[in-house]
Every structure is written in structure tokens, then in C-alpha cells.
Write a structure and sequence with these properties.
- With 389 residues, the protein is α/β, with parallel strands linked by helices.
- 35% of the residues lie in helices and 17% in strands.
- The strands form four sheets. A six-stranded parallel β-sheet has the order 4-3-5-6-7-15. Strands 9-8-12-13-14-16 form a six-stranded mixed β-sheet, sandwiched between helices. Strands 1-2 form a two-stranded antiparallel sheet.
- Helix 2 packs across helix 3 and helix 5 runs parallel beside helix 12.
- The longest helix has 16 residues.
Length: 389
Amino acid sequence: MAEFTPLHSELAYEALEAELRADIMNGRLAPGSKICPETMLAERYSISRGSVRIALDNLVRSGLLRKVKGSGTFVTLPEERTESAVSRRQIVFLSFATALPRDVFFNPGTYAPMINGITKVCSPNGYNLLISHIGPDWMPPPCLSNNDVAGIVFHGPVAPEFYRRWIEPLPNVAIQYRHPDLDGHCVKGDNSSFCYQAVERLKRAGYRRIGFVTNEIDMPISLERYYAFRTALKELDLPFERKYCAVWQRPFCNGLPEKESSVTDYLPYLEPMFHDGSLEKPDAFVCVDDWRAYCTITALERLGLKVPADIGVTGGNNGVSSVLSPVCISGLDCRLEEICGKAVWLLLETISGKLDGGVTMQIRPHFTVGNTPSFRNLNSKQNIYGNGG
């Protein structure tokens, strides 16, 4: 098995089952190979043996694993797999490392809302779900090469040759991003609304010199939110200052950006804003998500600034607020579970022949109240968290 990812979730067996299934479908677990013992899997994944057993039993019922008494559990050979494992009444979800590294994708905070949203639509409509994470080697899962799926939902920028060979021939829907050259369906978060709501809340709270923070400016979502942020400032009659924006791209390794958690020091990017005597200091930041907001708050505290007393911060999440920060971050719930559910709905409508051409759906995020912007205009009776936002 390639790499172990600790899983911490009440439904840990579901994440383990999905990761093992992805390894089998990608060929990382070769046909005929032996699975690690339950005790070893439980220890490496930090879950109970009972959870491991449920995951393995589900894969046995799917025909992907077989148990041999006294010998262990083995990956079945393709020709031995049950019809249910290769039914055309199934779709595959492709997660690309160009958007999410393997360990980030299988982290429950990311994995759970995506898979929950997909399965809530798949199961009632009689479709099985296959899950595959595509790494930098761009190896397709066997279900694609064997033409064993009815359609594809995918997440992340795709190499053109991979798209033309494996995705384009089948009904498909992109999640969050689809290259402008690629015709077809896409369901994404409304990034314009994301930034407008964040800036509008900060303005109502009394902040006027607002900047933007992301360390992946070369990635599609961050870039789109950065330009949406600039548009929001203009629409809300607030000044844009490039010097208030800490936007850069963290390093790439083997064609993929380094893990988010490996780049936590934002001080070099924020400190110059507060030492430039020719410019008023920023008083708030819109961060591309909760992780960047947490790293921003940490850097501001090192500068002697208090959040929210001295400076306001907003972030964004996939439906679960960040547990990293000691404060509850205000920001946007991007409703990732609903985005994924709508993507499958579009896919099934396409498979049934009810839709043709390219449809793009945008899901408006919801602002969630936290403690990171405070109400600064004490003379006003306006409620920052009231209606109208």
C-alpha cells in the first residue's frame, strides 16, 4: 500500500474503505496482493479493528477483496470480480492531485462533504460510486480502461491528453473548476458572492482598508477569488491597494504545490505592509479559506496585533469550521456537499439524455458568524450580523 493517512472520524471505516478502493482501482494494490492485517491497519490509520473489519467486509461484498481462511485478505483478480463490481450502473469520482494531494483528499474534513454529497444522489438513483485519486503519474483507474462506468465526476485541473482520452468520451461533470477550453458541465462555488459577502461584512463592521491573502495564487479558485475581491471593493466603494494584498504561490514539487500545512509562516508577506511609512496600514484581510486565515492570524499576533481588536479577518470552509484556530473564524461556508450533490444530479440528467451541451451552476456560499471581525463603529446602531448581508 502506497501511503497511510491517519483518519479521525466517526465514520472512519468509510474513509478507509474509499482509500483502499481507490488503491485497488488505481492498481496501487495489485491484483492478488495481500492486504495488511487488521491490527496493522487499525494502528496505522488510528481507528478500531471493528472499523477496519467493516471496511474490508464491504470491499469483499463488492468483489474487490477476498478472504482466505488462515492466510489473510487478498485483492481479487479482475476476472474473479463479481458483476456488481463492474456494473455499468456506477459512476466514478476522480480527484486529481493537481487540486488536492492524496492525504488532503482523504482527510475527513475534505473527503466527508464531497463523498456525502455524491452518495446522497447516487444511492437513491441506483448507482454505485467508485472513487479514484489520480496522482502525478496520470494513471487512469481500471474502471475507465475497462469502460465499466456510465459517467464521471471530477475535481481538479486535468492534463489535456488525459481529458481527451479518458473523460471526454463519457458523460462528465466538473466540480469547482473546468478549463474554459473544455465544453461540458460544471458545478462550483460562487466566488464573486464569496468575496462580496466577506468585504460587505467587513465594511459594515467599520473596516475600510481591506487586503487579501492566499499562498496559491496560481491555482484557479484562489485566482478567481482574488479578482472577485477587487471587484467587490469597487462595488462597495472601497479603495484597492496592491500593497495590502499578500498573494503568492507556495513552491511546487514534482509539478504539484507543496502541502498547505508545510507552509505556515506568513510573516514575511505581511510584515512589509505594517512597516511602510508611506501607506496607511491595512485594518482587515479577506483570506481565501480558514487555513490561510489561521496562518494570517498567527503572523499578525507575532506583529503585536490583536484579532479582531486591531484587525479583522475572514476565511472560508467546506462546511466545517477550522479546528486549528483558537478563535472561531468568521467567513463563508462554501457548501461543498451541496456542490457535489448537484454535480451528480447534472451527471445523471446527462446520462438519461435530459441535458446536452455545457451547463455551469454556481452555489452561493453562506456567511457564518465568528469572532474575527469586531464591530468598530460604536456610534452606529447597525448590526453587523443582521439582515441585509
